[in-house]
Amino acid sequence: MKQVVQNYKSGELAVLDVPVPGCKPGGVLVRSAYSLISTGTELMKVSEAGMSMLGKARSRPDQVAKVMQSVATNGVPATYRKVMGKLDSYTPLGYSLCGVVEQVGAGVDDVKAGDLVACAGNEHALHAELNWVPKNLYAPVPDGLAPRHAAFGTVGSIALQGVRQGESRLGEVALVIGLGLIGQLVVQLLTASGVRVVGADPDPARCELAERLGAAACGDPASAAVETAVAELTGGHGVDQVYLAAGGGSNQPVELAARLCRDRGRVVDIGKCRLDLPWNAYYEKELDVRFSRSYGPGRYDPEYELEGRDYPIGYVRWTERRNLACFLDLVARGRVDVEPLVSHIADFDDAVETYRRLKDGELKAVAVLFRYPGHTAEAEAEAPAVAVPAVKRPVGAVSAPARAAGTPVRLAFVGAGNYATSMLLPHLAQRDGVELSTVVTTTALSAANAQRKFGFAEATTDLDAVLGDKSIDAVFVVTRHSSHAELTRRALLAGKTVFVEKPLALTEDELAGVLAAVEESGNDRLQVGFNRRFAPLLQEARTRFGARTGPASLRYLVNAGRLQHGSWYLQQGTEGSRFAGEGGHFIDTASWLLGADPVSVYAVATSGNEDLQVVLRYPDGSTAAISYVTTGAPGFPKETLDLVADGKVLRLDDFVRASVYDRKRWVSSRLPTARDKGQNAELASFIKAVRTGGPMPVPLESLVATTAATLAVQTGLAGGAPVSLARTR
């Protein structure tokens, strides 16, 4: 078999052919599927190996002390031979992987051959095709968790043990210094525990990633941004805990911890940073300094790790293995998202080159995975799929009678945030035949402001009263993403026509819940705010492009730009990814232009999922490629689209100009006013459907297909493979 090794004397890295380890009692033989490079710990070892002998000595004074003790005991010649012999040997790398059990040793009864397990240990979870792993250093992988995500189990356990040492409590505020791999995981674990987190790191990209993953605010520790955020969140008292997840030789993290921690707060050291404690600062606040020892209780205990002797749960609740299993469960349930941390996946055969690129700074990464050959059939689940549930309408479905002549359409708004007040209500407030009946918000003042500005007859925080008001014809759901599906479901069951802003749902279960409400109530009167298909300029361009006979290629560039710090769109743990919230717009537009719903989705992303490439395939062979990027120039247009088929080209330039190239060329005149992305026409169509009882502007089947395709993007990013959109009956 092959294994990654390093010669600590020369610094040489190699992939060697070595014997297959035996399957000893008390453990299992595991064939690796993915192993994780710890870009902190492992690169530190790789860098040290490339130093001179003097540099090695300076970097490891603890080892120098051992050498001096050996000299005093055994003499210089014997010590020299011992040290050189140890240095001039190959040593393994790696300590976190996921693989498939090939053979079960005597005394093991909790797994069997073919099971997927996550493994830990710098002697047992190595970058090697096969590893023997003792019982307390592996944990079964929960059903549905991708092997590449389970490979994070060990580093996740390190972060989890650090959080446990901090004894965080609901409602507290924590500071995480260092937003590398461990720091990003600590941020998510604290957020999942109900702790508000401030992050500190000199890398702006890592700060933005941490905010997307749940941090309240992040910034450069050398700037005032971190101190300002801590002061605002804590009322000037300081954070309850500081987690040191940084490396390097600077003492700045320790000094920053003392400055921003509250009186009698806790400082937890997880990484390997300099720890020259400023005595006065720590003494005056009586700070509690704690160390987090690797994966948890059991680490470095040979009886636990090698002999399989567990600690009684009544005395030691969280051991190494229990931490590992807990972290895998959190990832499987979506409470921790490791996919945005995957910067690069390399084939195992390219291990040496990957380390070189990391060491030289050519490859900027938070986490890098090795993918092993031959694991797919055993370890990977079948090709991923996202269900496109059928729309079931019972016999005798609810009809929508036409409004009597002269009777206004009465509307209620649930939510009155920025989009509602800037893009929807201005088009409705002065529209003939429309009455703004009631606005519902969670805070009384925002409801009162919307009532005053747009002329609602009533303002309330009582949603049940609105849903029970038979005089209200339609309900607009314009709240945060996480509440859309549930509010839509309740409004449909109440018999209301519903306009819900995108997204309709953030999960397959939420989408199924909406359709269950349609089936139960017979009410399918639903519109999702996919407005671009209603844009006059795009509609005219589509008409001039005409019908097509062959498959088409569509390219859609969305220059989305970066979000401001603190935007709720960054709260992926509760509100879904940014693409989940906005991507439906672009999928719907592509499907409308191509006249069909997609049958598969393939999605890839750059480091941290900042820029996405989404490829949709359609039944007739047409394709649509959506580039959703956040790293472009702010001055470049936000949306540009090209549709090519049958010797014709349609081009849209940010809803300002459109053109069609055929035998004759048509170019629109430049719009003299602001971009019209179709909201006004969309609302007119919706109000007409409510007033007349006619069909909704977009078939419900199309709304469901677009939502399922949007959900499939996240599934595709997690699995690294095309996702089929499976129609259910």
UniProtKB/TrEMBL annotation:
One of its GO terms (molecular function) is metal ion binding. InterPro entries: ADH-like_C, ER, Gfo/Idh/MocA-like_OxRdtase_N, GroES-like_sf, NAD(P)-bd_dom_sf. Residues 50-367 form the Enoyl reductase (ER) domain. Its cofactor is Zn(2+). Keywords: Metal-binding, Oxidoreductase, Zinc. The keyword Zinc applies. Gene3D superfamilies: Dihydrodipicolinate Reductase, domain 2, Medium-chain alcohol dehydrogenases, catalytic domain, NAD(P)-binding Rossmann-like Domain. Belongs to the zinc-containing alcohol dehydrogenase family. This is Putative dehydrogenase. It comes from Streptomyces echinatus.
